Amino acid sequence: xxxxxxxxxxxKINPSAIIELFTLQLDNSLHGATTTYRFHSGSNxxxxxEIVWAxxxxxxxxxxxxxxxxxxxxxxxxxLVVSNALGTISAILLTVNQTTTGNDLTGATVTRIRTMARxxxxxxxxxxxxxxxxxxxxxxxxxxxxxxxxxxxxNREIVEFELAGAIDMAGVRAPKxxxxxxxxxxxxxxxx
Length: 192
What we know:
The chain is an alpha+beta fold. The protein has three helices and nine strands. It has helices at residues 4-10, 28-31, 88-99, and strands at residues 18-25, 36-40, 51-53, 56-60, 63-66, 79-83, 109-116, 144-154, 158-164. Strand 3 and strand 4 form a beta hairpin.
């Protein structure tokens, strides 16, 4: 992963579009499989709406992701609203709930990947030539990796998930370590 090319592209007068991609990775112990689903919410020049980046195909799927910004020093708890119009997400939920009843994808890993259109694979463009630039499978913003904390809503139209950082999950503890000034000089002074 290299952030230098994307930051260089963003600083241009006319940068290419930011492309937002998502992966959903199941956990075998919780969901009975290690399947990885790849999707994006945008459109593409190809008729099927698939985007290929770094050799992986991302399917077009209506999705809205919000809440990735840090607010007042708190770890973000993003929300993911996914279309359920075709029943695709409900089918996935039914499959994983056969392994762990009521799991509803809790514990699955969601990765948000953002790159620029100029770095997409050439197969995304007519004539298999990227007119915007040179494909670069390593040019991306820092990946944002979260775990599904819970399913907030499910109906015929949408399924909404609340995400959490791996350390922000209920019942998860960070390793204990005493903070002293010798180890962490910026802590401040201690009254004795």
